[in-house]
Write a structure and sequence with these properties.
The complex is a heterodimer of chains A (about 150) and B (about 80). Chain A has about 150 residues and is an alpha+beta fold. Chain A has a single domain, classed as Aldehyde Oxidoreductase, domain 3 (Alpha-Beta Complex). Helix content of chain A is about 30%, strand content about 35%. Chain A has three helices and nine strands, in the order βαβββαβββαββ. In chain A, strands 3, 4, 6, 8 and 9 form a five-stranded antiparallel sheet that branches. In chain A, a hairpin with a 2-residue loop joins strand 3 (about 40) and strand 4 (about 40-50). By secondary structure, chain B is of the alpha+beta class. Chain B has one domain (about 1-75): Beta-grasp domain (Ubiquitin-like (UB roll)). Chain B has a five-stranded mixed sheet. A two-stranded antiparallel ribbon of chain B has the order 3-6. The longest helix of chain B has 12 residues, at about 30-40. Chain B starts with a strand and ends in a 6-residue tail after the last strand. The mean pLDDT of chain B is about 95. The chains are: A alpha+beta (about 150), B alpha+beta (about 80). The interface of A and B includes residues 116, 123, 134 and 142 of A.
């Protein structure tokens, strides 16, 4: 079963959840990232996601490895969609099962924060008044160490 | 041959996602960047892009060899 996937197709949340169901799990925490219409005054019409697919799937696997180190009994599945997404479409679904609920909450939070740091996926906002690649593409944020914190080489 | 991959704003500015470069001997990341800038444009922001070699993040000091795939990764924004 492929636990870490980049897909062009709409995400079926239940499919991601089913991957982590386990007889020793007492909790499944699910994080669903959806397309938001309003960001401050800006109104989104739709989003485009692009990924470096093979590397993105490897980086998702790395997040899974990190979670297994921190929460050894966790089972993790992550699916991220790319392509054109409309308002309220599901962009990412993370499911984590653990024996007890606290670990499931913490691990799913950890997964989404790490996705935003290390997984090569990019979002282009198509606003009502223009478009922009999100993620500080103008280079005003620098990485003194040459990479974001915590990237394993 | 070195395969050079561009994404997001960099690909948009370059007008392409992929450039090939025939090299005789290993090159530096700086030389790859220079080759790109000579052939597809200035690509503002590329200095701040991370570098991945063969699908793994790499140091800017890494040596690029024949057959390698080099990707310039602008700040990511998934999720």
């Amino acid at each position: 079963m492929k636990m870490f996937t980049i897909t062009q197709k709409p995400i079926i949340n239940q499919d991601v959840i089913d991957k982590v169901i386990h007889h020793n799990a007492g909790a499944v925490s699910v994080f669903i990232g959806t397309v938001r219409e309003m960001t401050g005054e800006k109104q989104t019409r739709y989003l485009e996601y692009e990924a470096y697919v093979p590397m993105a799937e490897k980086q998702l696997e790395k997040i899974g490895d990190e979670i297994h180190k921190k929460w050894p009994n966790a089972i993790v599945a992550i699916t991220h969609r790319i392509g054109t997404l409309q308002i309220s479409d599901v962009a990412v679904t993370i499911a984590v099962s653990t024996p007890h609920r606290q670990d499931a909450f913490e691990a799913s939070r950890y997964a989404i924060e790490r996705i935003k740091e290390i997984v090569p996926i990019w979002k282009k906002e198509h606003y009502t008044d223009g478009e922009e690649w999100v993620g500080n593409q103008q280079g005003t944020k620098t990485y003194p160490e040459g990479h974001p914190e915590g990237i394993e080489k | 041959m070195v395969q050079i991959l561009l994404f997001a704003s960099l690909a948009q500015q370059a007008g392409t996602q992929s450039v090939s470069w025939k090299i005789e001997s290993p090159v530096t990341v700086g030389q790859v960047r220079g080759y790109l800038q000579d052939h597809v444009g200035e690509l503002p922001g590329i200095e701040n892009a991370l570098v991945a070699v063969n699908e793994e993040y790499a140091d800017q000091e890494v040596e690029i060899k024949n057959g390698d795939t080099v990707a310039f990764i602008p700040p990511v924004s998934g999720g």
